[in-house]
Amino acid sequence: MVKTNDGLKKPSNFFQKAKLVIKKNWGGWAIMLPTLILFAYFVWAPLIENVSYSFYEIHRFKKTDFIWFENYKELFADPAFFSALKNTFLYAFWSILIGFLLPLILGLLLSEVIHFRGAFRCILYLPSIISGVSVMLMWVYILDGSRGSMLNAILSLFGKEPITVLANSNFVIPAIVLVMTWRGAGATVLIYLSALQTVDNALYEVARLDNANLFQRIWYVTIPSIKPTVKLLFILQIISVFQVFYEPMMLTAGGPDNASISLMYLCYKYSFIDKNPGVGSACGVILAIIIVSLSLVYFKLSKKEEA
Amino acid sequence: MKLRQKNEGLVVGVEYKHTRFKILYAVIIFLLAVACLSAIIPIGWLFFAGFKEADEIFATPFKFFPDAFNLSKIAEVWKTVGFGKYFINTFVVMAGSVLSAVVLNGLLAYAVSVVKPIGHKLVYNLILASYMIPAVASLVPLYANIVSLGLKGYGIYLPLCLLYGANAYYFMMFKNYFDTIPRSLMEAARLDGANSLRVFFSVVLPLSKPIVGVISIFAMTASWADFLLPYLLLQDDKLATVMVKIYNLKSTMSQMSNFGIDKYLMALTISILPQILMFVIFQKQITGTNATSGVKG
Hints:
Chain A is an all-alpha fold.
């Protein structure tokens, strides 16, 4: 060990420079190391490995032979893949139709109210904090008609015939989206609420002085003021709907006849039910590409908002 | 507060002199009440259905409330399912998850925000980039890697907890908070001869109680609700968490004698009670931060 007065002398060669850099930084690196190892192990490595898995024959979760695009070919030859792709877009469509405006309207109503606001906020948020698994299993008994359901028991009050929502390929996606909206709307309401509270009050005053009616105030003041939030939440909603997984898994197992299967559930089904993880990984890669492209749009928008 | 004193928002106090605005306000309250009712009726139905008899649940005509409240049924279901074991398992995983979520993400965020060794920008960008990609898309290699560790028994909880130490969302929240802490306090500690690690535990963490609280609550509720990876890894029933058990119970209950839908619904209620309890206790922190600091994926 050579003891030098690093700090005072100007480093003359590469090694001394390197030593200086290490001396200055090793403490920081040591602090980062444990977490970085975890990120590498749990996040980064699996992402890269997933791409490589998709080009291999996988046996008992171990790579055996490099098979080029065979997994992808198998995936694209499976009609379930196109059902899943189509359904994922259907999920997005219904979720925008049912779930996009509702939180915005509720947020707007909530921001106007001065009585019971805290109670309304809490109750609306309640469904969001209960775990997905229990909630979904609960909804099975509310919606599913196979052994009787709360829905049918209520319908019978009005003398209506029992219906089987989750077993009907036309109703199953809207029904699942309804459950998703029930679960997620509260959290979104809170985000809109906090955005609405930042709207400049002076703008409202000007609008009032101009005798603007309520709809004009909403249209010309409120909406433009919270537009960035609306845009971001719109994209975030699409991104999260593209990853819909627990709902089809718990409510329908993708059925009836793949009518509610989603890309994410298809990945899972290939990997862990059909024991064909190679094709599951290929499906994961496709899904990741779709979501990354959507996320890039999101980041572009949020950058614009910051600027 | 009186309506007349409201001086912010779309409609202000003076306008509430007019009847049409009073009616409007009543309509708003009514609509919100309807929304709240739709939010809690399914949960309420679940709660009451657990107390009904199996054939009473879907009986016609529909009844919301049970004929009788048999409170001993809770204890009976608790014992039949053996919830005690699964609750303890879940609490162990929860404690580990909270600890690793706070310490590990906190340390990395501290290094990137305060210590700033060479390469901290690269680390920040790598984490930001991985934030966009859904974790489940890489489920197969993640699962394979964890299985290949060959952990036996309760050891399998270790990766489940450590997973919370690599969370991009928690990291970002920590970093944003640490960015706002005045540097002078940390510099003072450094001048006193404390190293970076000491500064983190004795200066930064005590100054960061609000964010530590928020991350703890998030990690707590998330690990209680965590399902997919625990379900895949905890095949052994004695290791199962509450969520894994409640899912498995659905397929095994048909083989259990005297365990009908009513008892299953009661078990579901038991599984969500801790979350409702956590929400009641921490609702300020939960609703407050979620609203101001962005959206979860």
